[in-house]
Amino acid sequence: MLATTARPEQPEITLTTTVAREHVHRAALAEVFLTGWQETATDTFRVTAQWPRFHSFYADDIATYDPMLLCETVRQTFPLLAHAAYGMPMGYALSWSRFQYSVNPQEMDIRARPAELELRVRCHDIKLQRSVPTRMSMNIEVFRDGQLMAVAETGFGCHSPAVYQRLRRGRTDTTALMEAAAASMRPQAALPRQTGRTRARDVVLSPTDASAQWQLRVDTAHPILFDHPLDHAPGMLILEAVRQCAHASLDQAVPAMVTGMDITFNQYIEFNSPCHLHSSTGATTDQATTRVSVEARQDAHAAFTAVADVVPLPVDHRRD
């Protein structure tokens, strides 16, 4: 006689995937770092993310995680929650008004497994029109293995296609704008080591004749910064430019990390006109930290202003 035996209880299998790429405004699945979200209280959320141990762009010349990877992870949180939690329709555009972050360098080391992150997000100053957000601010705490890794604050606007068309004064033909930008002559890149990079393709600054002044270098063929067609320079390109200005202010022989940044965006940066960045350094209460101020101007207007804190790291943090 056949006898049956009870199956032993199996542990619950938890499957991990990324959120929809459309919800974070990315074309490439490989560039989606968020893995899930849940509402924990009114206007309060828990967002999870995973970082790869290496990335083709978000990896500077030091053997730790790149703070720009943190910035991109936080940036993806804006559209995710705007779409998934607040009902912002697809096709809406987001525009940054301000962004600030501060990171703990001790939690940025690359370990034996990909970094699993928890972002605790509080949304506030939410303005709605017909139940759809038009403006929002976020406070974000980022934890890794239960330890506080970083904090960030941001404010951004949410624009319907019609509103965005008015804001851009008709300059929304991404195909034509990208083709024109690709056909134009890009200025020469600064030396990669001078800007904290390892490859010339990732350098977004071009030297000028003036001391501590750079021209923004826009490469619309860059596969990460221009993951999909755009009609203006993206915010992550601007943050990268500020980071590179901060590195350029230090001794190139010393590895360093931009542990904090505070940036205010004043206008869209266009492809068809030079944008110049002027940097200056100042003291902080911490003698190991250099504070770099950056002002960008395009067509005689202040495009953005930023302050970045950069700290030297031990020489053994230099990437091989």
Which stretches of 5+ consecutive residues score pLDDT under 50? none
Main sheet summary: 12 strands, antiparallel
**Proportion of helical residues:** 10-25%
Shape, principal axes of CA atoms: globular
SSE topology string? EEHEEEEHHEEHEEEE
Strand order of the largest sheet: 1-2-4-5-6-3-9-12-11-10-8-7
Helical segment count: 4
Radius of gyration equals 21 Å
Q: Give the overall pLDDT as a whole number.
A: 92
Number of individual domains: 2
Question: Structural class of the secondary elements?
Answer: alpha+beta
The CATH class of the largest domain turns out to be Alpha Beta
> Strand percentage, roughly?
35-45%
What do we call the CATH topology of the largest domain?
A: Thiol Ester Dehydrase, Chain A
Can you tell me about this structure?
The chain has 320 residues and is of the alpha+beta class. The protein has two domains: 16-168, Thiol Ester Dehydrase, Chain A (Roll), CATH 3.10.129.10; 170-313, Hotdog Thioesterase (Thiol Ester Dehydrase, Chain A). It contains four helices and twelve strands; from the N terminus they run ββαββββααββαββββ. The chain has helices at 67-84, 161-167, 174-183, 235-248, and strands at 34-41, 44-51, 93-103, 115-129, 132-144, 147-159, 205-207, 213-216, 256-265, 275-282, 290-298, 301-312. It has a twelve-stranded antiparallel β-sheet with strand order 1-2-4-5-6-3-9-12-11-10-8-7. The longest helix is centred in the first third of the chain and has 18 residues, at 67-84. It is globular, with a radius of gyration of 21 Å. The mean pLDDT is 92.
